[in-house]
Amino acid sequence: MFRLAEKKRPWLFAAALILIAAHDLIRPFQPTIRYLDEFFCLVLLFAILWKTVKKKFRVNWIFFTTLIFIVYAVILLLAERLPLSHLAQVFISMKYMIILSFFISLKNPASYEKIFRRWFIAVNAVTIVFIILQYLIGPPVYELFKITPQFRGAVLRHTGIFASPVFSATMLFTAIAFYSSRLAIHNRLSKLEWLLLLLSSAFLLTSLTRRYLLITAMIMFHLTLLKRFYWKHFLLIGLSFLALASAPLIPQYLEQMEKPMNQLLHDPEYIRRVLLTNGFELAALKFPFGSGPGTFGSKYSVIHYSPYYFDFGMDQLFHFQVGQQHMSVYDVYLASILGEYGVTGIFLLIFVASRSLLLLWRGRHHPFVLFSFWLSVNLIIESVTQSLQTAHYGWIIFSAIGLGLNQATTRKECR
Residue 42: which H helix or E strand, with range? Predict the structure, then answer.
């Protein structure tokens, strides 16, 4: 069975990507699919353990770091006398490190990259079609898949094949990074890729998602420095159209750019400010090890309501009250790591992020490695703006980064 899985593994990877992409379309009809990414991570963990026993697993630095983090978390859990059920939070916090460990160890990353490219172009096209349908016939699409329309000001924020405008914007940004990286290295794209790049750029503008606009601007600046951004006639016309189309949205952009900064600096009840400031305070209180898994800014910290929320007076805030969905409580991954694992956890996180960025930057002459570099830069930004613990699309992002790191560490010119 394992030999068969070995031969068919790239296509099993494709099947996993398809299911993850269809996650939000299937969930209204089959709620248990919400645990799909955790299931896939368990499969990868089992594969790593099996290959380690068989001495076929190519041990890598991310695997060692993940192992150190897990052992550290378990010791911390025992030292703080936390319930053993909080071990599940360790898995939730570290599941993407497991994905990186698996994909960086593969011996044939090129076959996975080829499948990823074909799959991603198909999903990007389907996403674009769904966005167009949402703008054209809206209500029937929303009702069919039980999606609630969301607005920012007077602007409808599309969801594509996802249940969230942010997830939709994530995939559009990923598409821009993917095609731009290929353009930067190979100097060419197919007509379909050009079309998808332009449409993804257009709909990213209407998503009114701040961080993706920032990182996309960085990508375009990098392309300009490489002198690979050729102003072909249809591209010039397309970008001019985008500029004109987005002009009415400029006041909305300025307001959305200014609002979170004012909230972060001046609003004592702004959820991200609350999480970050109290995360630092908890890290200082429990210096240098933190309060333990499942105690702050994480899913299990609200399932087993953490006493630290009472200690810091956070239980009085709207998002922390009993009966709320608590989704915003684990909206800041950095705050969760800081509070639960302290300065030690942050140093481990910084080590993984900085080493990954360095390896990817050195190997940036390969398009998939450059693509992975931009995904990694975006993840660093997301660590203070969005949860990496519950977003199912993270499986897609981290598998791509793992493949990019694989290329960056195996190609001679990248060493």
Answer: helix 36-53
CB neighbourhood size of 108 (10 A): 10
Encoded tokens for 215: 């990182």
**DSSP assignment string, 197-209:** HHHHHHHHHHHT-
| Token representation of residue 41 | 């991570």
Q: If you write DSSP's letter for every residue of 334-381 in order, what string do you get?
A: HHHHHHHHHHHHHHHHHHHHHHHHHHHHHTTTSHHHHHHHHHHHHHHH
Share of the chain above pLDDT 70, in %: 68
Q: CA-to-CA distance for 9 and 14, rounded, in angstroms?
A: 9
Handedness of CA 162, 166, 167, 173 (dihedral sign): positive
Residue 288 makes CB contacts below 8 A (sequence gap 6+) with: 342, 343, 344
Around Cβ 224, how many Cβ atoms within 10 Å? 10
Contact by Cβ (8 Å): 172, 127: yes
pTM: predicted TM-score of the whole model, two decimal places: 0.81
Tokens of 9: 């593994």
CA dist list (Å): 308 to 129, 292, 301: 46, 11, 9
Distance of alpha carbon 48 from alpha carbon 145, whole angstroms = 36
Residue 241 has pLDDT above 60, yes or no: no
Compute the chain's Rg from CA coordinates.
22
Tens digit of each residue's pLDDT (9 = 90 or more) over 245-256: 555 555 555 555
Burial class of residue 95, CB neighbours in 10 A (0-12, 13-18, 19+): buried
